[in-house]
Input
Amino acid sequence: MKKSAAFISCLFITISVFCQVNITPDQNLSSHFPLPKVDRRTELLSIVFRLAGNPEYNQDNFKSYVKDIHDHFDSYKNHEVVSFARELYQKNGISFDAVMAIAIYLSQPPALKPIRSFTEEIPAPRWGKADAEKFVDLLQQFYIDAKCEEFFSRQEELYKMAQERFKIVSDALDISWFKEYYGTEPKGSLNVLVGLGNGGCNYGVKNIHPDGAEDPYAVMGSWSFDQEGKPVFSPAGYLPTLIHEFNHSFVNQLVEANEKLFEKSGQVIFEPLASVMSRQAYSSWKYMEQEALVRASVIMYMKKHDNGKRAWEKEITSQISNGFIWIDELVDLLGTFENSRDKYPTLESFMPRIISFYDDLAKNKKALFKKCVQIKKITPFKNNSTNVSPSLTGMKITFSKALVGKGFSIWYGEKGEEHFPIVSDGLKYADNNTSLIIPLKLKPDTEYEFVLVGQHFRATDGYPLLDVQVSFKTKAK
Output
């Protein structure tokens, strides 16, 4: 689906700091937690979908590595597997985690054979059996045609360095927490894959064996680098994401098992947040609720390992600004779970309480969304006006709360750049950050529109503005 281009964008980033946890041998479930590695399967799949043009696989954070990729592979952009990947993106939405999902169901190259038979659900429902099998056949040929073995051999020292550097993150993880919190043993090994070409994107996927065993994978991106441009990793920057991706392996199945019970309330809550969530690749209520429970569970980890720093409070504010505006209440509910383990030995046994929680949220939808920033007034004309003077050089939007006031994100509307009226010079906050001054350049008899992207207009308490489209038309003269 085509997205509107962003004209002005400033991303707010919150990094939560964790203390390192020293785990004694009897605590460390080492049999479930192999060392981090760079995996040729996931690197290969990220390269193919980079060549296919998927935006999430075209980040260039690791500049020297991305250059090596393009120098070696750009002449294969029209290879049959790349063309098919483009088709799959358009037809089935094969992107983000679906790409990594098929990678872990393959044997290591050069064989790249499915390690179990594909079905309509495996490697992921978006793939489908026939398309997955066709893609793998073409991928095997691409590996030969594009001389992939030569490329990976040249990167071997880099891969070893990245693996070694990531150990500081994986060593800081209290892996025993997963069993303690969820009340269940991991069904297989927890695998950390360092994705060097993935930029800031991270994925939680798992390999399900025919006997029911599961191997969860946290496919981690790389977004911090040393002076030489090589990736560096730290617990402060990467540990929250590592916990997040492993949480998916426990949480997703719980939401899916109760899908019918979650659906009604989920749809009610998702509708006003659809654009906010879709920008984060959560295209349905189910993905939204899985993410909410995953993120709330990360905060529960943080609370246990905080050592008085209360970094988890900042994480709640961060997640509220991402559109999960009920996350504080969900964390409180999970606190009830933690304090009632005699009654609720597993998170699965607590799911009826979480379902009731969402039912209550949906019933009190107005109160929930009233917490968000609202637009109080637009001057000197109202939204959707059709007789705006073309000589007007500016407008003012007044909000219901004072905003952080450290950035803007304003997108073109569906009509595109030609109908975008904003001049960047002079765009500023005013009135103690309760209003936004927007310079305009207008023509007669023209329709204009733009979108205030909500999560980048957030109040000091973290609550965002939900996306607002401003539309108007100027008079003929």
